[in-house]
Amino acid sequence: MKLHDLDHWDRGSPQMKGTPHFKEEQCAPALNLEMRKILDLQAPIMSLQSVLEDLLVATSDGLLHLIHWEGMTNGRKAINLCTVPFSVDLQSSRVGSFLGFTDVHIRDMEYCATLDGFAVVFNDGKVGFITPVSSRFTAEQLHGVWPQDVVDGTCVAVNNKYRLMAFGCVSGSVQVYTIDNSTGAMLLSHKLELTAKQYPDIWNKTGAVKLMRWSPDNSVVIVTWEYGGLSLWSVFGAQLICTLGGDFAYRSDGTKKDPLKINSMSWGAEGYHLWVISGFGSQNTEIESDLRSVVKQPSILLFQFIKSVLTVNPCMSNQEQVLLQGEDRLYLNCGEASQTQNPRSSSAHSEHKPSREKSPFADGGLESQGLSTLLGHRHWHVVQISSTYLESNWPIRFSAIDKLGQNIAVVGKFGFAHYSLLTKKWKLFGNITQEQNMIVTGGLAWWNDFMVLACYNINDRQEELRVYLRTSNLDNAFAHVTKAQAETLLLSVFQDMVIVFRADCSICLYSIERKSDGPNTTAGIQVLQEVSMSRYIPHPFLVVSVTLTSVSTENGITLKMPQQARGAESIMLNLAGQLIMMQRDRSGPQIREKDSNPNQRKLLPFCPPVVLAQSVESVWTTCRANKQKRHLLEALWLSCGGAGMKVWLPLFPRDHRKPHSFLSQRIMLPFHINIYPLAVLFEDALVLGAVNDTLLYDSLYTRNNAREQLEVLFPFCVVERTSQIYLHHILRQLLVRNLGEQALLLAQSCATLPYFPHVLELMLHEVLEEEATSREPIPDPLLPTVAKFITEFPLFLQTVVHCARKTEYALWNYLFAAVGNPKDLFEECLMAQDLDTAASYLIILQNMEVPAVSRQHATLLFNTALEQGKWDLCRHMIRFLKAIGSGESETPPSTPTTQEPSSSGGFEFFRNRSISLSQSAENVPPSKFSLQKTLSMPSGPSGKRWSKDSDCAENMYIDMMLWRHARRLLEDVRLKDLGCFAAQLGFELISWLCKERTRAARVDNFVIALKRLHKDFLWPLPIIPASSISSPFKNGKYRTVGEQLLKSQSADPFLNLEMDAGISNIQRSQSWLTNIGPTHQEIDTASSHGPQMQDAFLSPLSNKGDECSIGSATDLTESSSMVDGDWTMVDENFSTLSLTQSELEHISMELASKGPHKSQVQLRYLLHIFMEAGCLDWCIVIGLILRESSIINQILVITQSSEVDGEMLQNIKTGLHAVDRWASTDCPGYKPFLNIIKPQLQKLSEITEEQIQPDAFQPITVGKTPEQTSPRAEESRGSSSHGSIPQGEAGSSSMVSRKEEDTAQAEEEEPFQDGTYDCSVS
């Protein structure tokens, strides 16, 4: 054994240090290695360990040599292992058995400073821990403990911070032991082993554990095996990375790679790098030698890591961001700063909110970022650390981010720097000597706009606590400095308090407040309280984190003022994985707080510590308050490595009742999650994390016998953001413990979360899978409890059916035994009008019941869907019913997810299509239903039903239901719904109407039908405009306009106003006044005419309303009959108006009497359908609504000239008389139009009297009308619907064709009204 001296000289001379250019001069130090002494220990050395001033050497002859670094043994004899007693624990100290065999020696050992002893692995596979009983290190003073069950140990690694000893085993697993404080025995903490669930082919393929190394910050251990492969584990056994599966183990073509074999490895500074010597031995593969002619050479590899900031700066655990730090960059999950939202700033908060410049996105609150920001996209916000700072201060040791996620501070070797995510700029010390003079020791934290850090001042040799303001220059002149007694190891900020843990095992609490000293703003720090912990803490290095929290075992404290931010109630201390809580002692006399200043007031002492949990890696808590979500915000969240997470949940009495004395006020609930937690979103019931993802590049390289490139062997790794819901685990744990009331309170507080339905579904699914697939019978099944719990929520029916459809069929019986019969659930869905969910239940019924039952339920659903106009669902149901009939039930229909727009959406498919029968079907857009197809031969998905096997009973059954629905719609006068129904389901309306002409398609009550159509199609009832009788038209002053208007068909209503003197003026003016408002609005919103016309129409109408409507209304109510004298005041008003004014009034009146353009198109379409089917009474009703005498004339012409059913004529005649009577009493606006068509009515009554019953009836199409009839000139004068055609030439043929063209044009171009029905104003 050789001992060497290592000297080094720094080439950069010491006096250069102060000058600003010393960086250029600074280079790597020169090293000089010099031999000091050679010792011959006469046996191969198995292991070397440094113990303070001594060197411990284990040799293969079973001896332990203790050698001073100077090379002297100081007369101490080597210790023979056979003389060291071993026992199960230290209590049976001297009666331990000795290692009974002669050739025993230590294979591997490691010194643990915090346990003061050695973890050892013997050559026979036994493991143990050797500790000196007293300070003397001699054979008589050594004692060993060992676990009984480990006999295949291979290597050992020790974690000093957590006092853990990890022993690698031949089986490939790692057993991690700790020492019991009271007995000194070795206790198994946990195991690191790959499960068959994650790696199905892993069994016996790893070989023995070869090497293990804990990272410098003691937060992870890396393990490698004999046959190759790397894995990374957290302290308490959560697996982070493993290279034995996925892209690490397989090429993109699916062939297996050789695992990476590692001969030696070591962590770099701060754990950012892993240095690896890889070697490819030939020990285990004959196959490899065939494949590889070239032996792979050992090589040095460097793996880079990024780590969570919690590993080194645990004060970050009360924040919701995930911050990862690398050696030269930071990864942040709060997205772009500009996207930050702040939905929670409304909750109460006791922090003093400083007057600060408003950032473009902050709402001024310091609470929490929005959910969308924290979850956001999957990418990280990467911040490159300033190269100027890194040059002299690499590597980064600590980092911290403020509450709003806008500013980051980093600490390297010396000094610190900070960065704003808003301005994208770094701030560094202006004076470099100030930076190089401070070493940050205990981490750093943000408090509002200030950075609080604990550091060592090199010049003054003094421990200090410093506070720097973010907005001022980075200089000690602007810092507030407080001297500290001992070195600070940990620092954390809670509300307006700073808590510090020092190397003398004391905890100190400071208050921090903002101060303004003239122009400079600083923060003042004052000591509040000191607590000595030396009785409880064996070594200060063992403390992982210390935090102040508002958590306490008594919820009564927070009950009084739950809305206020809660005060500092307790200290949480993580001591080597044991979570210790010290609460304030409230047993003594209580001081009234309101009289004294909070800084001078004496704080309550703390109670002795209580252990809350074991194996704790991280702790999360918040001081925010929200009355709605008290369970989540007042809980304490723990990450426990391989054991998953735990939550210490408060239990509240319902409605603030007095809690039961026997119920505890908090409960610790364990639960497993699939990601490693890095942050907890308290209100949103989410855990955020990061996961290693890989990308393969091997397709870029060709495989040959030569050495494979490393890119092929090792994939490119990226770190992805990830998140997981945990609420269902907590609800389930509460239900297991019979705390259903608490579970309900918690669930109701979270019911507004967007993924709450998913939470219920997950809970039901997990319990179902576990219980239904269990081998042994379950004594106390949870599923009925979960089912009962879910029924408390309106989403119960969806939750059950979604869960069932995502579960295999074999488990359905077990599920529905707990939640209820699917038939009953189906009926509940129908009662709740939730048809889409009912459709999902139908699929379950189809699988679980006989076809008759599912057909019966399908019929129910089909009828309901028809009634509600859910056309998409109707189409699915038709397919489903056919499948049941034809035995195709293996392919159940997919449940529709989207809902159809309701039937009031109207006939969307009539857009861009002409009604004209001459138009061919080819140029109709295929996506729309073609009217051509609807009339003649239905095709497409729904149409095939009639063309193919139409004699099938199943089709007949479906047709019967469709007919029944159509009949119901006609009986209820729901023509709009009928049109939608026919078009959406491809129903052959015309042929059905022909059959039903004398039955369902008869109009029983014309007046009711008329009223119903007005309502359905938003068509205004006609009104009599007062202005039409005013003097400008009578005295001939504006004769030209009058003539022009009278020529147009729309002037018909004004022709015979005087014939109508029977109606009292009161009614008339009232109907006008009440109608003009709404109808104008309807036209405005529903029509699609050009904007310039709209302006022209709008203004005169409002003028008229202002100037004459009120005046004329009062005049008319006073007068009893219509005399010219009553209108004189209106005349005077009107004579002042211009020509265009009165002209536009008529146009606006005409527009007010028509409904929306869409309704007009729909009505004309229906008119066309009824014409085709020969339902003339319906045509009359539609003609009346449209108030077009041409339609009425045309129908009456058909009735005269052809063999029309006398019954129908009689019906039309009585119907029209009924309408006439109704118009006289209730709706005077119809009278002018009825007067126009009076002559035709008289003819009709003559025909009906002499009509003989015909033998048969052929339906008459519009196309045949010209040959059959030639109307007289008087009729054509009324029926001509075009002001532009001379009356003599207006034959009926031109009328019909022209009418069709107009409707086509109206639908294609969609003007405000049909072009020919408007009077154009030049």
UniProtKB/TrEMBL annotation:
The keyword Phosphoprotein applies. Residues 1-11, 349-360 have a biased composition (Basic and acidic residues). GO terms for biological process: intracellular protein transport; retrograde transport, endosome to Golgi. Residues 1-21, 338-363, 886-905, 919-948, 1255-1322 are annotated as: Disordered. Residues 728-886 form the RIC1 C-terminal alpha solenoid region domain. Keywords: Cytoplasm, Guanine-nucleotide releasing factor, Membrane, Phosphoprotein, Repeat, WD repeat. InterPro entries: Quino_amine_DH_bsu, Ric1, RIC1_C, WD40/YVTN_repeat-like_dom_sf. Residues 1303-1312 have a biased composition (Acidic residues). It holds the Pfam family RIC1. Residues 338-348, 929-939, 1278-1296 have a biased composition (Polar residues). It is found in: Cytoplasm, Cytosol; Membrane. Its main location: cytoplasm. GO terms for cellular component: cytosol; Golgi membrane; Ric1-Rgp1 guanyl-nucleotide exchange factor complex. GO terms for molecular function: guanyl-nucleotide exchange factor activity. The RIC1-RGP1 complex acts as a guanine nucleotide exchange factor (GEF), which activates RAB6A by exchanging bound GDP for free GTP, and may thereby be required for efficient fusion of endosome-derived vesicles with the Golgi compartment. The RIC1-RGP1 complex participates in the recycling of mannose-6-phosphate receptors. Required for phosphorylation and localization of GJA1. Is a regulator of procollagen transport and secretion, and is required for correct cartilage morphogenesis and development of the craniofacial skeleton. Forms a complex with RGP1; the interaction enhances RAB6A GTPase activity. Interacts (via central domain) with RGP1. Interacts with RAB6A; the interaction is direct with a preference for RAB6A-GDP. Interacts (via C-terminus domain) with RAB33B; the interaction is direct with a preference for RAB33B-GTP. Interacts with GJA1. Belongs to the RIC1 family. This is Guanine nucleotide exchange factor subunit RIC1.
